[in-house]
Specification:
605 residues, alpha+beta, eight-stranded mixed beta sheet, 18 helices, NA-bd_OB-fold, cytoplasm
Length: 605
């Protein structure tokens, strides 16, 4: 017989009744029924009920064990008494009568129990993550993560992609988030950086002629934590392709993500064809460039309606005169809501920094005409109210809310209000994974603080502009430049951005011009990105790619609101590993070997 087990704790079935078996695992739960002990024994594979009574030579040893002790038991498999079966367990028809018991690993008093679903403070859970990971839900999340990554790999290979590994120690990047720096012992005063992403390496792989690359890539960024972003490190499905258009990237990536989500959807629907939504349209209709399409509400612009001379609501008219806009958020069926519903939304808007959230509730008059009531209805003539209702697709019994301000502020508040109203009215169809592509991001934007043109998003994207015309652009022609779109795209699911991607700027002359427009001369470009420019000058194919976040994919498929619930050993929000004590101090000897002298900030009194 094997030293520790003949079966796992999830293996025994009625066909094993009568067999002598050996199991090892953790004491998940112990129940004392007056001379009879029931021990639920757990391992990675499942749980088996084990029974010992005073007639067993193992009874005295069994009385000593406690929760989470690791034990080995020998015994006979028998059928559970009628009425005590557990249909929720694969092993629920049988139990093991214990003949012998050995303690393999006793446990100290637990800072948090493994049995049960009680919530515990994050600090406790992270400090004792190895205990937290024994709990059923979190353990299942981590196993599901592995299965999802296996599926991603298989689907990428089936799509003709090849897996490569790129360096972890590389050069510091002057763009993007803060780097994690690694001092060099052999080169005093110089540092490696952990890669924020394998961006330059995957482009160089294309320039080297490998055509289709992917990698489950670790990425390192010294940035703050969020619910959907781990501090310090994360993983992404890094993808790059040669000789492709934007549509080619969509056609390659969409089946992979759709297939993975369908495989692990647990009954939820998955978008069959991902809609393409231009950035400007997304900002208008949804108030955000990562729209949650489970919510059916569509924001509309009503600036023209409130500009009408007959409208006397000066708060909005003054916004419009100052160059601002007014957005309308429909609220179907909200007319039946009590006054408190509208008051809560107003209070919420004030909490978002807005003066409030004006609204009109539509009712039907004799003759079928709509009539509005509400705080601002008397300032808006019936004809304008009707025009607003028609534009927003509203009828009697519906309401409409308004957001006014600069285009960015009005869109931002309207986007948040859209989600809030949709949820409060129960309009969102939650049991689905609603995907979309966001396309046509602006290449440039106006930097109001510095009064100059700046890159809007990724400076290495190819401009969606005829190349010769782009090369001849006058940097002073701000109107034309600010209208240029980039071959840049995001993929979004349920309001969460899974990834940004782009067709890369593979032409050095176009890249130099793109940076010159943003105020970077050639010397700066050479100093910061000389290695990439050198490669581009030696025969670079048109190429593009994307990098969906693995952690976010798993978070969605596990229906978890926080990314720490799907990461094996996460840090806390202050980028600390409470379990291992990182970051930690190092010895003076280690610092001397690295030629480093600390210059710590003075502690405040």
């Amino acid at each position: 017989m094997h030293r520790y087990r003949t079966h796992t704790c999830g293996a025994l079935r009625p066909s094993d009744i009568g067999a002598s078996v050996r199991l090892s695992g953790w004491c998940h739960r112990i129940r004392d029924h007056g001379g009879v002990l029931f021990i639920d024994l757990r391992d990675h594979y499942g749980l088996t009920q084990c029974v010992v009574d005073a007639d067993s030579p193992a009874f005295r040893a069994a009385e000593a064990v406690r929760s989470e002790w690791v034990i080995r038991i020998d015994g006979r498999v028998r059928q559970r008494p009628a009425g005590t079966e557990n249909a929720d367990l694969p092993t629920g028809a049988v139990e093991v009568y214990i003949d012998d018991l050995e303690v393999l690993g006793a446990s100290a008093e637990l800072p948090m129990p493994v049995f049960g679903d009680l919530d515990y403070p994050e600090e406790t859970r992270l400090r004792y993550r190895f205990l937290d990971l024994r709990r059923e839900k979190l353990h299942a999340n981590i196993m599901k993560r592995g299965a999802i990554i296996d599926s991603l790999r298989r689907r990428m290979r089936e799509g003709g992609f090849f897996e490569f590994q790129t360096p972890i120690l590389t050069a510091s990047s002057p763009e993007g988030a803060r780097d994690f720096l690694v001092p060099s012992r052999l080169h005093p005063g110089k540092f490696y950086a952990l890669p924020q992403a394998p961006q330059q390496f995957k482009q160089l792989t294309m320039i080297a002629g490998f055509d289709r690359y992917f990698q489950i890539a670790p990425c390192f960024r010294d940035e703050d934590a969020r619910a959907d972003r781990s501090p310090g490190e994360f993983y992404q499905l890094d993808i790059e392709m040669s000789f492709v258009t934007q549509e080619d990237v969509f056609q390659a990536v969409e089946p992979v993500l759709r297939g993975v989500f369908e495989e692990f959807a647990d009954g939820w629907r998955v978008t069959k064809e991902f809609p393409r939504i231009p950035y400007a349209e997304a900002m208008l209709k949804y108030g955000v460039d990562k729209p949650d399409l489970r919510n059916p509400l569509i924001i509309v612009d009503v600036t023209d309606e409130f500009s009408d001379e007959s409208v006397t609501f000066n708060a909005f008219k003054n916004v419009i005169k100052a160059g601002g806009v007014v957005r309308a958020i429909p609220a179907p069926g909200a007319g039946s809501q009590p006054r408190s519903f509208f008051d809560r939304l107003n209070d919420w808007a004030r909490g978002e920094g807005a003066p409030g959230l004006g609204y009109i509730v539509f009712e039907e008059e004799e003759g079928g005409r709509l009539s509005g009531r509400g705080p601002i209805a008397k300032f808006v003539p019936a004809a304008v109210q009707a025009a607003i209702a028609a534009k927003a697709g509203l009828k009697a019994g519906d309401a409409v809310f308004f957001s006014a301000g600069t285009e960015a502020k009005a869109a931002g508040l309207a986007g948040k209000a859209r989600i809030r109203i949709g949820d409060d009215l129960g309009l969102s169809d939650k049991d689905q994974f609603a995907f979309c592509w966001i396309t046509d991001f602006p290449m440039y934007e106006w930097n109001e603080d510095e009064k100059r043109i700046d890159f809007s998003h990724n400076p290495f994207s190819m401009p969606n502009f005829e190349h010769d015309a782009f090369l001849s652009l006058d940097p002073a022609d701000a109107a034309t430049i600010l209208g240029i779109k980039a071959f840049q795209y995001d993929i979004v699911c349920n309001g969460i951005e899974l990834s940004s991607g782009a067709i890369r700027n593979h032409r050095p002359d176009v890249m130099e011009k793109a940076f010159a427009i943003a105020g970077y001369d050639r010397d700066v470009l050479e100093a910061k990105f000389g290695g990439m420019l050198n490669a581009l000058r030696m025969g670079a194919p048109p190429h593009g790619g994307i990098a969906p976040g693995v952690d976010r994919i798993v978070m969605l498929l596990c229906h978890e609101p926080n990314i720490r619930e799907v990461v094996l050993f996460p840090m806390n929000q202050r980028a600390e590993d409470l379990m291992m004590g990182a970051p930690s101090t190092v010895t003076p000897k280690q610092l001397r070997e690295l030629h480093i002298r600390l210059n710590l900030p003075e502690k405040s009194a």
